[in-house]
Amino acid sequence: MVSRHLRASRSAALLVLTVLMALAGGAAPARAQNVRIGFIDSQRIFSEYKAAQEAQDRFAREIQSWRTEAEDRRRAVDALRNELKDQDPLLSEAKRLEKESALQKSVSDYDLFVQDFWGPNGKVQRLNDEITREVISKVRDAVELLANREQYDLVLDAADGNVIFGVKSLDLTQRVLDDLNKTTVGGTTH
């Protein structure tokens, strides 16, 4: 759900890393030696952060209700289709056309419903974006607070492949999780 949005920061992180490497080899060698770098694992944060779990549960509940409605609509289409098939030999031309028209309208309504929810920029995508944006904002704020408090110059995300190796002492994941989870009680921040 969320890693897609965090990958967008990958290019920016690579650019920053390139700049830092240039600094280390060039114009400011004294400053480059003092650069503090850390990393987080956003996948782990999203799997262990209480608010992210609650958001995922909320998303799943909402999706389930939409799936149930879609299934009900699909069953209604199937029922009309079976009714038409079973009654076709007995129907007058006018009644058959009326039932075919009702079936076509039901199929069209079902297709529009599915497209509205699961199509590009549908309700599912918009809900996912909204929920993801809220969680990402909280995570970024927590990372920024920790980085500022402890004077880190750069924090990378190991989940998107930017960090191939990192000394355990540079891994800020648990500290970010602790900060996030201690400020979240029952889904509210205080």
Task: Report on the architecture of this protein.
With 190 residues, the protein is mainly alpha-helical. It has helices at residues 3-25, 29-33, 42-48, 50-87, 93-118, 123-149, 173-182, and strands spanning 37-40, 154-157, 184-185, 188-189. A hairpin with a 2-residue loop joins β3 and β4. α4 (50-87) packs antiparallel against α5 and α4 (50-87) packs antiparallel against α6 (123-149). It is rod-shaped, with a radius of gyration of 26 Å. The two termini are 26 Å apart.
The amount of beta strand, in percent, is 5-15%
Helix-strand pattern, N to C?
Answer: HHEHHHHEHEE
Largest sheet: 2 strands, parallel
Indicate the multimeric state.
single chain
Tell me the Rg in angstroms: 26 Å
Secondary structure topology:
Layout lengths: L2 H23 L3 H5 L3 E4 L1 H7 L1 H38 L5 H26 L4 H27 L4 E4 L15 H10 L1 E2 L2 E2 L1
Parallel strand pairs: 1-2
Antiparallel strand pairs: 3-4
Describe the structure concisely for a colleague.
By secondary structure, the chain is mainly α. The protein has helices at 3-25, 29-33, 42-48, 50-87, 93-118, 123-149, 173-182, and strands at 37-40, 154-157, 184-185, 188-189.
List its salient traits.
mainly alpha, 7 helices, disordered N terminus, two-stranded parallel sheet, two-stranded antiparallel sheet, disordered C terminus, 190 residues, single chain
